[in-house]
Specification:
With about 700 residues, this protein is α+β, with helices and mostly antiparallel strands. It has 15 helices and 26 strands. The strands form six sheets. It has a seven-stranded mixed sheet, with helices on both faces. Strand 16 and strand 17 form a beta hairpin.
Length: about 700
């Protein structure tokens, strides 16, 4: 068998593209099961306390209402590992927006109307939702998200800073940020006698099935969870959220299929958020630009019910050669919703602060910011001492500078104007770790010459179906159109969730192994295949999770050109250009889409996205897309993503690294650095909105 050319690296079109553009792709709320009902949550209207009474009479009298679940009569579940899932189990209210009742009705409209008729009484307690660096309850946790040590220290950072000829001591703030995927968190649950079937918007149905089995105390083999198509997640769908638990509860109570689609205004308090981070960075360097010390200290918040620590100081452990360093996280537990994963957790806010501080240091030195990064390139990962499996940040910076026209830049701030506009350019580096987890897969050859690959991967809009088909076709030596890939069903061979930019690396490894074994079996066989075909299996346990002697990361460089209106304070990004070193690119079309998507999200982080906590009310002020402003097409005039051809033999059989998150890492810093170059003013509090810019210009 010979390939068609549409294998690894080629810009193959999405396998499900026709379904999506014609509307036939079915999402979690689009399963028209007979007798299906719809449920609407009732959120708590206090920031802390307990429910003392729930009056459901008026709601139950409304047309179409089937049931109202409260903590007094909802199905009891086992204590979850994630306290966010312990909904309707007791009267406690840990934060505003916590679900205190669930209305089930024949239609979404009837459920929403009835939810407004539910009357809840509370015993209110004093609350605290204000994060500050000097909060008296701040403490140092044992670990940050991802299992990273909360503190790492090398050498004598205090002494080195005190004696450094050139120093920068600066503070940055990143506000709370919200995921807001196009498809809100949605689940449809129904019982078939003693079997539970759930259609959910999730980044990993294997995890959802295991969680539901534990909560409802039933065998996993009696639960099927599907996620055929998912309209984005950005981390917020990485683990089960309250919608799936509520849907199963309501289906059990009513005996009907039930859909729970969380209203968008409920998402900030129900499904996690990027926690705000307060950064302090101190950099010391010689007059030649070589770093002698680096400290990056972060203060962030979590809820009272769960410890989640945004690992924002961790990237500083990877980036630059520095003999004396300290990276530290401190946490304050407040009466706020539990934060969770959002695209590049830790790296996105952490690299904004670090790369902004590096730009400030370049200014103090009078050195080109690219050159500053080049002279501080490490030979080994500074924190672990391991050699890098590959590190081509230097090539990314140089290639990006050539493509962007960096050499023509006048380095003096506020040196370029166009009428009322000030124009500037900026640069920042990017990094993201290579993550991979064990996975299983099955490949089958059929008598008609086609192949079926089965794996419980999840395509959340990234093109996973397509890329896995390419991996399979390449290993089989088969034309792409002869391979079909089944994903998104917990009855398929188990696989890890789509998160941490680890999906393709994890799933592709097992797919490659299964297909390679199948190809070997076919090559040794003569005669026709049996009607059921021939199957090969793979399980990468012990390989994908084996310790590596190498530090494995993807790297990149961002370049931005911005204009700042001196009259209105408006910042516009004219150009964004990025170059990445992310292993072997498996599909040029979907990879470019992922890079550009991350860069666009980074633009939003820099200029438009930001949430504020109303300290008196105890809630996020920006709770929907009318108030929380994500970038639109008009905000992104010119955006380019490029990559270098990187070979790395220490990753997986495909030689690939994750690409879904590195696009956002460092983008905000490049834009902020460009704004400083345009105006001569350093703004350290995201987002860079007109009010902040005008105030700074007037000062």
């Amino acid at each position: 068998m010979s390939g068609t050319g549409s294998t690894l690296g080629a810009p193959a079109e999405r396998r499900e593209g026709h379904q999506k553009v014609t509307g036939s792709a079915r999402y979690a709320a689009e399963h028209p099961l007979p007798g299906r009902a719809h449920a609407w949550p009732v959120p708590a209207t206090i920031a802390r306390g307990r429910v003392t009474a729930v009056d459901t009479a008026a709601a139950l009298d409304l047309p179409g209402v089937l049931a109202v679940l409260t903590h007094e009569d909802a199905p009891t579940i086992a204590e979850p590992d994630d306290p966010m899932l312990a909904v309707l189990q007791n009267p406690r209210v840990p934060h505003r927006g916590w679900c205190v009742a669930l209305v089930v009705a024949r239609s979404p409209e009837e459920a929403r109307l009835a939810a407004e008729a539910v009357r809840v009484e509370y015993a209110v307690e004093e609350h605290d939702v204000a994060l500050r660096a000097d909060h008296p309850d701040a403490y140092e946790p044992d670990t940050a998200n991802g299992g990273y040590p909360a503190r790492r220290e090398h050498g004598d950072p205090e002494g080195a800073f005190a004696s450094a000829p050139v120093r920068v001591d600066v503070a940055y703030r990143v506000p709370p940020l919200h995921n807001h995927p196009m498809e809100p968190h949605t689940s449809t649950a129904h019982w078939r006698r003693d079997r539970l079937v759930v259609h959910t918007s999730s980044q990993g149905t294997t995890t959802v099935r295991a969680t539901l089995a534990a909560l409802f105390e039933m065998p996993e083999d009696r639960i099927t969870v599907t996620a055929d198509h998912v309209g984005g997640g950005f981390g917020s769908k990485g683990t089960p959220r309250p919608d799936v638990v509520l849907a199963v509860m309501a289906a059990r109570r009513t005996g009907r299929p039930v859909t729970v689609a969380l209203p968008r205004r409920h998402l900030p308090t129900s499904v996690g958020h990027r926690a705000p981070t307060l950064h302090r960075l101190r950099l010391g360097a010689g007059t030649d630009g070589r770093l002698s010390c680096l400290t990056h200290e972060v203060v962030t918040h979590s809820s009272r019910i769960r410890e989640f620590v945004e690992q924002a100081a961790v990237p500083a452990r990877t980036m630059y050669e520095v003999p004396n360093s300290r990276t530290l996280h401190r946490l304050v537990r407040l009466d706020v919703p539990t934060p969770s994963w959002m695209r590049a957790p830790g790296e996105a806010p952490g690299m904004y602060a670090l790369e902004s501080a590096m730009d400030e240091l370049a200014g103090e030195l009078g050195m080109d910011p690219i050159q500053l990064r080049l002279v501080n390139e490490p030979e080994r990962e500074p924190d672990s001492g391991k050699p890098f499996s590959s590190r081509h940040l230097t090539e990314c910076l140089r290639d990006g500078a050539r493509r962007f026209g960096w050499a023509a830049r006048d380095p003096r701030p506020r040196s370029r104007g166009e009428g009322p506009l000030l124009v500037g350019t900026g640069v920042a580096a990017a990094t993201y770790p290579v993550l991979v987890a064990p996975s299983t897969a099955e490949a089958r050859a059929l008598p008609d010459g086609t192949f079926v690959v089965r794996i419980n991967a999840t395509d959340i809009g990234t093109g996973a179906r397509t890329v896995l088909t390419q991996v399979a076709a390449d290993a089989l030596g088969a034309p792409l159109d002869r391979v079909r890939t089944e994903v998104g069903n917990s009855d398929l061979p188990s696989a890890p969730l789509a998160g941490g930019s680890s999906g393709t690396a994890s799933w592709g490894w097992s797919v490659h192994e299964a297909c390679t074994r199948l190809a070997g079996t076919l090559a040794a066989r003569t005669g026709p295949l049996p009607d059921e075909g021939i199957t090969a299996h793979a399980d990468t346990t012990g390989q994908a999770d084996a310790d590596s002697p190498y530090a494995r990361h993807a790297f990149g460089a961002h370049f931005a050109e911005t204009s700042v209106d001196r009259v209105t304070g408006e910042v516009r990004v004219r150009r964004l250009l990025s170059v990445y070193a992310a292993g072997r690119i498996l599909n040029a079309r979907t990879a470019r889409s992922q890079f550009i998507g991350g860069m666009t999200m980074g633009l939003g982080m820099a200029l438009t996205e930001g949430s504020t906590m109303d300290t008196a009310f105890g809630d996020f002020t920006e709770s929907d897309l009318a108030a929380y402003h994500v970038p639109v097409h008009a905000d992104v005039p010119r955006i380019e993503a490029h990559w270098i051809d990187e070979e790395d033999a220490h990753l997986n059989p495909m030689g690939s690294k994750g690409i879904g998150e590195i696009g956002i890492v460092g983008t905000a810093a490049a834009i902020g650095n460009a704004v400083h170059h345009a105006t001569g003013i350093r703004l350290r509090d995201l987002p860079l909105t007109p009010d902040k810019v005008l105030t700074a210009l007037a000062g």
